[in-house]
Amino acid sequence: MKEYEPGEASKLRRIDGENILDFNKSLSNQITNDTLSNRGPIVDQKLSKEQFLTLIAHAREDSANATFNTIIIYNELKSLYKNIAVLFVIVIFLLAYIAFRVS
Fold this sequence. Notes:
- By secondary structure, the protein is mainly alpha-helical.
- The chain has helices spanning about 20-35, 50-100.
- The protein is rod-shaped.
């Protein structure tokens, strides 16, 4: 799998046969590593810099994982709706054929 590059997550593709959830977890981990390597100024002085970065990294990882899983669900639903539409058309044609043969 190609290494994560900031801003290019949409170009990443999973390897055939790889579980899509594992791919999303891996991509989320790569985004987390990117967050940890880009250390910026700390706004909240109550947390140490390490604690703050860890908190931000885990929040970004969780949101990235949720985003990628939501995209998968959307694509699966879109595919399901197409299959239902095809099945509906087939049933209508079968009923029309049966009605034609009976009459």
